[in-house]
Design a protein that fits this description.
By secondary structure, this protein is of the alpha/beta class. It has helices at residues 8-25, 27-39, 48-60, 112-130, 155-161, 213-227, 269-287, 307-319, 328-332, 340-343, 365-372, 376-396, 400-426; strands at residues 65-67, 76-83, 91-98, 139-146, 170-172, 175-177, 188-197, 236-243, 254-263, 290-295, 349-350, 353-355. Strand 3, helix 4 and strand 4 form a beta-alpha-beta unit. The relative contact order is 0.16. It holds the Pfam family Peptidase_M20. Belongs to the peptidase M20A family.
Length: 440
Amino acid sequence: MAAPASSLPFQLQQWKQRAGDCIDEAKDKLYALSKFIWSCPELAYEENQSHDRLVRFFTEERGWTVESHYKLETAFRATWGPVGGKEGDAVVNVGFLCEYDALPGIGHACGHNLIAEVGAAGALGLKGVLETISDCPIRIKVTVLGTPAEEDGGGKIDMILAGAFEGMDVVFMAHPSQEDAPYLPDVAEHDVTVKYHGKASHAAAYPWEGINALDAAVLAYNNLSVLRQQLRPDWRLHGIIKHGGVKPNIIPAYTELEFYLRTPMRRDLPAIRSKAEMCFRSAAMATGCQVEVQFAKHEYHNILRNTTLDGLYKENGQALGIEFTTDQTVLTTSSGSTDFGNVSYVIPGIHPYFYIGSQALNHTEDYTAAAGAEKAQFYTLRTAKALAMTALDVLFCPGVLQRVRAEFTEARLKEERGRKSRESEDGSQPKHCGGAAALH
């Protein structure tokens, strides 16, 4: 049961103010945490220093139980509670997620140091309120998960499969951007590596003795370029030739491409995979090369939106002075992809975007600088406060958690109905072509 509705408005506003005060009280150590992560950018599954710094941060905070290598080597879990209610009552487990991997070459150009800070700050703010409520009517637990490898590999998906999210009721995180938005349409994505094997030969003296793997790569690239005109308008495929040969006078015996395939909904990924794979394999047939088509072990799902959480976050953010974008182009255009999408299929959650004081674009050197600047701190901590306030609404506003759960269940059912409908339209679920490499 929740606290009496008649006592909630004033109490809840007091608790929200207290959450913000707790975050402000910790602002110096939160900035030091963020700056440390920013200063030592580490790639997916190799975030050892950032991981250790976060583990130390929560170990040094009073009351947290920390599991330093939780499910993955560079993941962790910090828990506080449960408190309140009575022994035997159901526990409401509120989660905050921290990301901390960087990009190759340009460091924290996506601001994952700030994502880690927001997760830590939001958790501290919520804990700071809960430990002051002497007669809390419900049993509550706060969990922080350190989730590595968002940029490459899908650490959250590994953790889902390992059971890391079991028992959690709602989950919060926020992502740096150029504007504030409670929701942006992150899309489903699957990446694929394609390797062509030919035969080397002297390119001038006896080219007829060679099998040109670069020709296969170029044909595949052009096949995909032509395919784009036959794709749905909101589907995307884009990629690079990672290896194109070693010397102009040697027929390339090996080439390698990497492509990302994106669709607004995960149910459409099989169709775009099938079309792309035919492009890759036909290029091998045309040139006489052998081909390996290696799909990544995980696909990223689109985010299942929870408008109840979005609305609460927006209301709390506006109370803190956040001006949310009203640009419909921004709000309706597909953005990037994130493994938080997979989390949103197993637990209701929210993944808002927040302005950090710069119009620099993500995945640029300018954004790396902005993510490490002191100027970003005001916006980062304001976002953490809005998340903590939203968590308090979920816990203490009558009926809110039930609405969040009901919307989550309906969104999953709707997506499943859409998947079955798409399979029916296509006759059967598209399957990849046979050959050297299967999907994995």
